[in-house]
Write a structure and sequence with these properties.
The complex is a heterodimer of chains A (about 950) and B (about 180). With about 950 residues, chain A is of the alpha+beta class. Among the domains of chain A are: about 110 residues, Ubiquitin-like (UB roll) (Roll); about 190 residues, 3-Layer(bba) Sandwich (FAD/NAD(P)-binding domain); about 210 residues, Gyrase A, domain 2; about 100 residues, Beta Barrel (Elongation Factor Tu (Ef-tu), domain 3). In chain A, about 20% of the residues lie in helices and about 30% in strands. Chain A has 23 helices and 50 strands. In chain A, the strands form 13 sheets. In chain A, strands 8, 9, 12, 13, 14, 15 and 28 form a 7-stranded mixed sheet that branches. Chain A has a 6-stranded mixed sheet with strand order 41-42-43-40-34-44. Chain A is elongated, with a radius of gyration of 38 Å. The mean pLDDT of chain A is about 95. In chain B, the strands form 2 sheets. Chain B has a 6-stranded antiparallel sheet, with helices on one face. Chain B has a 5-stranded antiparallel sheet with strand order 4-5-6-3-7, covered by helices on one side. In chain B, a hairpin with a 2-residue loop joins strand 5 and strand 6. The model of chain B has no long low-confidence stretch (mean pLDDT about 95). Classes of the chains: A alpha+beta (about 950), B alpha+beta (about 180).
């Protein structure tokens, strides 16, 4: 019901929205919750376990009941708290956890079965038979119990994440936080003030009180303007600080103002602050009594918030039940707004209540009666007996819990304060954090203002600034006067944790079944778990536990408060990393040309490389690949090899350094020559292979494989910085600086000589030569090296010329019967030559295994040499690199398949090796493979059985040498 | 044959303007990495002073004089931006040509720290990261060198091969921020 003349919504701007398909209207400034209250909608959801009808309990982010799904389709968002959703025109809202509808929910049958579904029920009920748990019980329970569901589609919304830094982070923008932020900024500190509301003010927005002679909300608005205009303050509204982490780092979730086109929905902030002031206020707690979860039963503070902030009241006959003077405000304010107050029930016998309504002191509400449409009557127990009062709403207050969750995020435990019957933060729970105001137990506005100022002064002095000592604004300082009341005894279920459907009886039962520790009780009953983290229920639950176990509350202690304080979308934390945003894309200079030729790209590390270059008439990749292999073997092919890592090393000790990191000697390499090199890890296994070119006396450029470029650079830096810091050299990656292309095939030199300013021949440029050349007006580097086994070169130009040179090389090659080739052909060419890639040097193979033990120089030390000589890493028991050929000459060999003796059963224990790489060799006209076979080098000519259990293939193979084409290497040198 | 044609890393991608911010590609001239050999730090600084009027920078700092900029780029390493490297440098330091390895971007506009705050985990507030300050860091997932040029502009060096991703990340941050602030 909307109350005329109350609230601060914009009544000139009506907004239309739907809830479960029915159309309603609200005003700008409404939350979804307040708009539904205005429309007298009480039933907003079904509870987690028993599917009990539920309505609003609170008006803030702690709302446990009113979880709804916003929107439809891929962009729909489940589990939004209606209290935090800003109303916007056209908003579509659906209720959750019900079937087929909210009014008629079949799973409400769970509620009838409640006697069997108490605490720990699934531990007891679903013990047997064991296999049923995964297949039957768990899926059934998951379907019955739950929150909203994801759409199952990729989320098209935009999210953001961001970093911020400040001297002081103020968490909460109520009177405490605003005062603290203002004072700290005046003292010269860089301040960030976060508040989860749409405007600053905290409780001032929800109460009828004056600050500095003006309405509290007006004072807050003026203060917010001042703060926003202050150059040292950054005000972040709609931003909930979600976690406190090491070294002054905080997580915070910002909800972006709705309706900004193209803007993200949420931003996840990481805020680093030298100091923080926790001014998070307090959360009101309900009292547990039978039927206290009926829709229409709200917290008293929430009732006032709805009245003062949005001008709505969830009923026409309202009763108020509490145990503090604070609760009386509710009755007073409602009556002043013209709402019929049916009764005020105060559990304290000495309570003094004045007002034009019936008052029951020393009384308790013992039952809320009604149906799914909400509470219809309450039953009260007074010193004179029990009676019923007809109401359609009840405001309940069991007092306030300081909102100390963030203070506990680093495992600190709070202190119990008997005078306010609540826990308060202890100093030092989070380094650099000061708790102030209501979250430290100061509940009056005056108390909050002065605590905020004092906390700011403390921080300012701590950071070497002089705090301001201006006078505080005048504000109420009413005493709180609480007498603890946790649960009203009686029959029927009295709810403690609304979100997880935990009752007083569940907690008592946990204690009876010997789950007496608060942490055990939590796990047995699920109280305080999940998104809610027990915001409204923790203290009452442990008070009930304390009572049931005969201990005091401080001895019983609290459970762990875990971040995040409010649910955070994974989409916000992973902002920017969806889909292709997962990793950077590295493009070669020939990328556009390759795509223009229709080349499918494959990923190699972060790089994209052309797989093959299809031509007209080629229907499969194999046809393209076979043609490209033939091109290289018979004419000339061009391949972009820029993705290989290139590391430039210079210095007087560079050669000595390379001798240490490579198994073979590089110091004997002459300038102008290249040598193949093998690197071991410290544990003796092969790390990487590549080439080492000596450009000058103290100047080398080494290459790494594409995927291991970063790892090798890191390894070299480690060796230099930590193992041999006395060696004088410097290294830097030049991978990105050079575009490098393989020019391979019998016509490669002819092609190059058509471009080079000074042609090369065998005498000036033999196999494994390198040196500077010029072409197209550009200084370039030429290397006569070969991965294909053909007479081949690699030509490197500064990357800006890469695209241009690729076009030129391919055009020349095509004129000579060749052309561009991709990774598929490159792979077949190297398979034919038995060259290894990381398919073979996969981290578990040694130089001995790949047949390169002779490359480990006996005359010098190198990284990994000693460890490679360990027993078990050398010898016939090792699986060694071999070639494989199908006996029938045509069956495909499959990487990943295992090798067995022909008569052995294809079982794990009988495995003798495995296939690492395979392909079809157009040169040999047959499939071929590389693999590792136990004692393989001694078994050439033997027959083994290849079995691929996954793909269901079995092929008899002949063991061959790993080099299948031109084993003498004549083509390389020709 | 004819001359090879040079293409810049962000060739067709830039400039872009979103809200009050502009991202453009800059021609930094030659980029030379300089890493002093053992015991040569002072001699190297001297050679740099003689050639360009710039010393070898302290970690996290850069300096500019006469069209040359020198910026710290890592442990015992600096990048010289602009001129050809003086031959004397190679006597004291490892020198490589890095000109083609980097996409050089200029992000400008009042409050452009807010754009970088979406991508770079550094405290870039002007009083902490003043003009001339430089750092190696991350921009979303890309390795970069970030240098504050003035109150409203940063120089960002990123790997040439990642230029497309770099521009995409910055464009996304600029656009979504522009949409938020209603710019």
């Amino acid at each position: 019901m909307r109350i005329n003349g109350r609230g601060r919504v914009d009544r000139g701007r009506a907004l239309s929205f739907t809830f479960d398909g029915r159309r309603y209207s609200g005003f700008a400034g409404d939350t979804l919750a307040s708009a539904l209250v205005a429309n007298d909608v009480k039933l907003l959801g079904r509870s987690f376990k028993y599917h009990r009808p539920r309505g609003l309990l609170t008006a803030g982010s702690e709302e446990p009941n009113a979880l709804v799904t916003l929107g439809a389709g891929a962009a729909s968002e489940p589990n939004a708290r209606a209290t935090m959703v800003e109303l916007r025109d056209g908003l579509q809202v659906r209720s959750q956890n019900r079937w087929p509808s909210l009014d008629w929910d079949l799973l409400a049958l769970n509620d009838l079965a409640a006697p069997f579904l108490g605490a720990g029920f699934y531990y007891k009920t679903f013990m047997w038979p064991r296999a049923f748990w995964e297949k039957l019980y768990e899926p059934a329970i998951r379907r019955a119990a739950g929150l909203g569901a994801l759409s199952g589609k990729s989320n098209p919304d935009r999210y953001e994440k961001a970093f911020a830094f400040c001297d002081l982070l103020v968490i909460g923008g109520g009177p405490t936080g605003m005062m603290a932020a203002h004072r700290a900024a005046e003292a010269g500190l860089d301040v960030i003030l976060c508040d989860e509301g749409t405007v600053l003010g905290g409780r001032l927005l929800s109460e009828d009180e004056t600050v500095d002679g003006q309405p509290g909300a007006d004072w807050a608005a003026a203060m917010q303007r001042d703060l926003a205009a202050h150059p040292k303050v950054r005000v972040m509204t709609r931003t909930t600080v979600t976690g406190a982490y090491d070294q002054g780092t905080f997580g915070a979730l910002e909800r972006i103002v709705p309706d900004a086109e193209g803007a993200p929905l949420e931003c996840f902030w990481r805020i680093v602050a030298k100091r923080s002031i926790l001014a998070a206020g307090a959360l009101e707690r309900p009292v547990a009594f039978a039927g206290n979860d009926r829709p229409g039963i709200l917290l008293a503070g929430a009732m006032r918030a709805y009245l003062h902030r949005w001008g709505v009241v969830p009923g026409r006959r309202v009763a108020v039940f509490g145990n503090t003077d604070d609760a009386h405000r509710t009755a007073r304010d409602l009556a002043a707004a013209g709402v019929h107050v049916a009764a005020v029930i105060d559990s304290r016998t000495d309570a003094k209540v004045q007002g034009d309504f019936p008052v029951y002191t020393g009384a308790q509400v013992c039952r809320g009666a009604g149906g799914r449409d909400g509470v219809e009557a309450i039953r009260i127990r007074t010193p004179r007996g029990e009676e019923s009062i007809a109401v359609d709403a009840l405001a309940v207050s069991g007092g306030w819990n300081p909102s100390l969750h963030l203070a506990c995020h680093m495992n600190g435990r709070p202190d119990w304060r008997e005078d306010i019957a609540a826990f308060v933060p202890r100093d030092g729970m989070v380094p650099g954090m000061t708790a102030a105001g209501a979250c430290a137990g100061a509940f009056s506005t005056h108390g909050c203002l002065s605590a905020g100022a004092a906390a700011a002064a403390l921080v300012a002095r701590d950071l070497g600034r002089t705090p301001s000592d201006a006078a505080l604004p005048e504000a109420e300082d009413a005493p709180y006067r609480i007498k603890a009341l946790w649960a009203v005894p009686g029959r029927g279920r009295a709810w403690l944790d609304f979100q997880n459907d935990v009752t007083v009886k569940d907690v008592v039962q946990a204690a009876q079944e010997n789950f007496r520790s608060v942490e055990h009780m939590k796990r047995y009953t699920t109280q305080g778990m999940a998104p809610d983290q027990g915001k409204s229920s923790n203290v009452a639950a442990l008070a009930v536990l304390a009572d049931a176990t005969g201990r005091g509350i401080p001895e019983t202690g609290t459970t762990t408060f875990r971040p995040p304080f409010v649910p955070v979308s994974i989409a916000a934390m992973g902002a920017g990393a969806q889909g292709m945003g997962f990793a950077p894309r590295r493009r070669t200079t020939s990328d556009a040309a390759a795509r223009a030729r229709g080349a499918p790209m494959i990923e190699a590390g972060l790089w994209y490389r052309a797989s093959y270059f299809p031509q007209a008439g080629e229907a499969t990749w194999r046809q393209s690949c076979d043609r490209e292999v033939g091109m290289v073997r018979n004419h000339v092919g061009i391949c972009d090899v820029s993705t290989l890592g290139k590391i430039d090393l210079q210095g007087p000790d560079a050669a000595d350094f390379l001798d240490l990191v490579y198994t073979n000697r590089m110091s004997t390499l002459k300038p102008g020559r290249v040598r193949y090199g093998l690197m071991l890890r410290e544990d003796g296994h092969v790390m990487d292979d590549g080439t080492c070119a000596r450009l000058g006396e103290g100047h080398f450029v080494i290459t790494t494989t594409t995927a291991a470029a970063g790892a090798v650079m890191k390894h070299l830096e480690f060796v230099h910085q930590c193992l041999v810091p006395h060696l004088d050299l410097a290294m830097i990656s030049v991978t990105e600086s050079w575009a490098q292309f393989a020019v391979a095939g019998p016509k490669s030199r002819d092609l190059l000589n058509g471009l080079l300013e000074t042609p090369v021949d065998d005498a000036s440029f033999p196999f494994m030569a390198c040196g500077p050349v010029r072409l197209g007006g550009v200084a370039a580097r030429l290397f006569r090296i070969s991965f294909s086994g053909e007479h081949a070169y690699e030509i490197a130009v500064p990357a800006r010329y890469g695209a241009s040179l690729f076009d030129l090389l391919v055009a020349r090659a095509e004129a000579m019967g060749g052309g561009a080739y991709g990774m598929e052909a490159l792979n077949v060419l190297r398979l034919e030559k038995g060259h290894i890639t990381h398919a073979e040097i996969h981290g578990r193979t040694t130089a001995f295994d790949i047949g390169m033990d002779r490359m480990v120089s006996a005359a010098k030390e190198c990284i990994g040499k000693t460890m490679a000589a360990r027993p078990g890493l050398v010898g016939p028991e090792r699986e060694q690199l071999v070639g494989l050929a199908p006996q029938d000459g045509r069956s495909a060999l499959l990487p990943g398949a295992f090798l067995f003796a022909p008569d052995d059963k294809a079982e794990r224990a009988a495995a003798q090796g495995y296939v690492t790489s395979a392909g079809y060799s157009p040169t040999l006209g047959a499939p071929l493979a590389l693999g590792f076979l136990r004692d393989g080098r001694a078994r050439q000519g033997e027959v083994v059985k290849m079995v691929d259990h996954l793909r269901g293939a079995e092929v008899l193979c002949t063991v061959t040498d790993s080099v299948r084409v031109d084993p003498e290497g004549g083509r390389l040198r020709g | 044959m004819g001359e090879l044609e040079a293409r810049s890393p962000c060739d067709v991608l830039l400039p872009i303007t979103r809200g009050g911010w502009t991202l453009s590609e800059v021609d930094t001239g030659r980029i030379t990495s300089i890493a002093p050999f053992a015991g040569q730090e002072a001699a190297l600084s001297g050679a740099l002073q003689t050639a360009y009027g710039l010393g070898f920078p302290e970690p996290g700092h850069s300096a500019e004089a006469d069209g040359a900029r020198i910026l710290w780029s890592g442990r015992r390493q600096a990048f010289l931006l602009g001129p050809e490297p003086d031959a004397a440098l190679a006597r004291h330091a490892a020198v490589t040509d890095q000109s083609d390895g980097w996409a050089a971007l200029h992000l400008s506009g009042a409050g452009c720290e807010a754009v970088l705050a979406r991508l770079v985990p550094l405290d870039l507030r002007a009083e902490v990261f003043a003009p001339g300050c430089t750092a190696r860091s991350l921009l979303q997932h890309c390795h970069v060198s970030v240098t504050r040029l003035d109150d409203t502009g940063f120089l960002i060096l990123g790997y040439r091969s990642m230029a497309g991703t770099l521009v995409h990340e910055l464009d996304t941050a600029m656009s979504s921020l522009a949409a938020r602030s209603g710019a």
